Amino acid sequence: MTASERSLGIMARCQGSHFVDKGYYKKLTLYGRKHGIRVFVFSPRQVNFSTRMVKGYEYRNGSWHAKDFPIPAFIYDRCFVGPSYRHYKPFVEKLQNDRNITFLGHGLSGKWQVHQMLVKSPLLAPLLPPTEIFSYPVLHATLQKYGAAIIKPMAGTHGIGVVRIKEMRSGYEASGRNRDNKPFTRRIRDTAGLKSFVSVFTAGRNFLVQPYLELHTPNGTPFDVRVLVQKNGLGKWGTTGKAVRLGDKRSITSNLHGGGKATPLTSFLPLHFTSAKAARIEQTINRVAEELPRFLEESHGRLVELGIDIGIDTAGNVWIIEVNSRPGRTVFRMIDDPTAQLHSITQPVRYAHYLMKERVGG
C-alpha cells in the first residue's frame, strides 16, 4: 500500500492554519500514527487536481505544521454546512467524484432531505414531528392547530435561528436565537406584525415549520438526548454514547453552544419519569440508534457517524429532532464518560483502517 493509500485527510474549513476542533484532530492524528495511518487536515479549496497535491496541516512535535501532501486516498469530511459552504461545495463535489478517493461518509444535505428519507421508515416515521417547508400560510395553519410553532433554518447548526412562535392573548410571542446566536424574546401585536417579523427573519434562507413540542423538564429547563452512533473497525454500526444536554431556562433549545450543561441519560430519566416510563423511553432511544443509521444509509449512501438528537416531551413521548453527519463530541467529556470519549475519537480511524484493508483485499 502506498503512502497516500495509508493517509487519511480530514477535510475542514481552514483559513490558513486556523480551523476549529484542533484538539479533536490532534487526537485523531496521534491515534492514526499508532496504527500506521498518516492523518492531516486540509481545506478542499487547497487541492491542486493537476499535480494531485494538497496543502495541509499535520500535528507534529507539539504543534501544527503546513506541508504539501499527495491527495489522500481516504477523506473524513468535517466541512460544516452553513451559509459560507457554497464557497467550498464545488471543490468538495470534485473530490467526491474522484475515483481514487474514498470518503468515510458523505455529509447529509439538509434537515428537509433527511426528514423526507426517514419518513419512509415505518418504525421511525411516528417519531418525527410534523414538518413542512416554511411559508407564512403554513406557519399560520400550524399556529391555529397547535397554538405554538417552531421555525428553524434548513441548514442551521447549534440552535442558531431556531424560533418559537406562540399565540398569546394580546398577539404573539417570538423567542429563540438570532443569527448571532443571541437569545431574544419579542412581543408581536397582530398577524400583520407577525408576517413582517417572519419575512425579515427568514429572508434569504430556507426554513422549516414544526409544531412546538414541550421538550423540557417540569421546571422548564429545555433538554434533549444526544446519541452518537459510529462505524467501528469491522465496518459495523454501534452506539458510542448517550448524554442529556440541558439548556438555559431562558432558551428554547438545549444546545451546548448556547451555554448548556450535560448529564448522563441513565441518571437523568429516573428523576423526571416513573421507572416504567423511563425504561420505555430508553428502549425507544435504543431502537432508534439501531434502526436509523442503517435505514438512512440505504437512501443516502455511505455514512461514518451520526449525532442523533432526540427530544422527550413532558408526557414521555420520544421524538427524533435532528440528525447530524458531522457531530461534536464535547458532551461526553462533560459527562465524564471516558469510554464514550475514547471511542468517539478512535472509531473514525478504526473505520478508515477497515476501508484500507478492504481496498487492498478487494
Describe the structure.
It is a single chain. This protein is α+β, with helices and mostly antiparallel strands. 32% of the residues lie in helices and 30% in strands. The chain is built from nine helices and 17 strands. It has helices spanning 22-34, 89-96, 111-118, 136-146, 191-202, 265-272, 275-300, 330-334, 338-361; strands at residues 7-11, 38-48, 53-60, 63-70, 74-77, 102-103, 132-133, 148-153, 163-168, 171-177, 183-188, 207-211, 223-231, 237-246, 261-264, 305-312, 318-324. The strands form three sheets. A six-stranded mixed beta sheet has the order 4-3-2-1-5-6.
Provide key terms for this protein.
single chain; 362 residues; alpha+beta; six-stranded antiparallel beta sheet; 9 helices; 30% strand
Helix segment tally? 9
The biggest sheet, with number of strands, parallel, antiparallel or mixed sense and barrel status, is: 6 strands, mixed
**How much of the residues is beta strand, in percent?**
25-35%
Q: Low-confidence parts lasting 5 or more residues at pLDDT below 50?
A: none
What is the strand arrangement across the widest sheet? 4-3-2-1-5-6
Secondary-structure-derived class: alpha+beta
Calculate Rg over CA atoms: 21 Å
**SSE topology string:** EHEEEEHEHEHEEEEHEEEEHHEEHH
Query: In percent, how helical is the residue content?
Result: 25-40%
Overall strand count:
17
Shape: globular
Mean pLDDT: 91
Give the distance, in angstroms, between the N- and C-terminal Cα atoms.
13 Å
